């Protein structure tokens, strides 16, 4: 989360300087700078994700050195999941904090002809971003470990595309639907990257059903008979 905050700080500084050095009365230029700032923010986030991967690799080597069996107690996949989830949570907090502040009032959403679905759509977009950052973390770390640079490119490209789709708002159907399609596809990709398969899902469900039947049988045996 700290690494994401640093990337946001740097992107904000770049955008702030760009705005003050440009013509503020040129609306088209300011909109272009806003798009530029969003793209720079995405690139910095991915750069800091890579920096965090390198830091964790060094820490992993240190943990393996001092462990008794010569192996790190934390796997790379666990670190990738935690890193992505942290990026997602802090990104979601910053995405929704101002929206929640505005929801206090005064006024009613849509009273001036705006969309009445602003808050619910923002909530769904925030949820998608949290999930996407988690999935991107898993894919990104695996790509860095196996040196699959095309995977890194796809992660950055999908992140840029997701950020760019938000500029279609308030046409929420044009942004929300593609973003959730990207989320679903990225989630399946991360699932396969983490070693998941349809066979493992069926095996997990069958084990759960067996455990539930054993619990029910045990509970039945513990019930005392009544006269």
Summarize the structure in words.
Residues 1-19 form the signal peptide. Keywords: Membrane, Notch signaling pathway, Signal, Transmembrane, Transmembrane helix. It is found in: Membrane. It is a multi-pass membrane protein. The N and C termini lie far apart (62 Å). α4 (118-146) runs parallel beside α6. By secondary structure, the chain is an all-alpha fold. It has one domain (1-203). The protein is globular, with a radius of gyration of 23 Å. The chain has helices at residues 2-20, 27-66, 76-103, 118-146, 149-165, 172-193, 198-222. It is built from 7 helices and no strands.
The gist of it:
This protein is mainly α and 227 residues long. The chain has helices at residues 2-20, 27-66, 76-103, 118-146, 149-165, 172-193, 198-222. The protein is 79% helix and 0% strand.
What would the keywords be for this entry?
227 residues, mainly alpha, 0% strand, globular, notch signaling pathway, Gamma-secretase subunit APH-1, membrane, Aph-1
Task: Note the topology.
Elements: H1 2-20, H2 27-66, H3 76-103, H4 118-146, H5 149-165, H6 172-193, H7 198-222
Helix pairs in contact: 1-2, 2-3, 2-5, 3-4, 4-5, 4-6
Subcellular location: Membrane
Main location: membrane
Signal peptide: 1-19
């Amino acid at each position: 989360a700290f690494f994401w905050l640093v990337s946001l700080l740097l992107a904000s500084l770049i955008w702030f300087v760009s705005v003050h050095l440009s013509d503020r009365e040129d609306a088209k230029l300011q909109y272009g700078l806003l798009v530029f700032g969003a793209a720079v923010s995405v690139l910095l986030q991915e750069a800091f994700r890579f920096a965090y991967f390198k830091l964790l690799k060094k820490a992993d080597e240190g943990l393996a050195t001092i462990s008794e069996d010569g192996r790190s107690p934390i796997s790379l996949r666990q670190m990738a999941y935690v890193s992505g989830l942290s990026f997602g949570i802090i990104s979601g907090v910053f995405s929704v904090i101002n929206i929640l502040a505005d929801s206090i009032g005064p006024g009613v959403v849509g009273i001036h002809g705006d969309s009445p679905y602003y808050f619910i759509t923002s909530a769904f977009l925030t949820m998608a971003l949290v999930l996407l950052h988690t999935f991107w973390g898993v894919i990104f770390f695996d790509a860095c470990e196996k040196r699959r640079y095309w995977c890194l490119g796809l992660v950055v490209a999908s992140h840029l595309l997701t950020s760019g789709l938000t500029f279609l708002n308030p046409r929420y159907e044009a942004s929300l639907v593609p973003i959730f399609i990207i989320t679903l596809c990225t989630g399946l990709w991360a699932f396969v990257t983490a070693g998941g398969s349809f066979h493992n899902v069926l095996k997990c469900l069958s084990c759960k059903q067996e455990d539930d039947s054993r619990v029910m049988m045990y509970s039945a045996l513990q019930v005392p008979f009544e006269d």
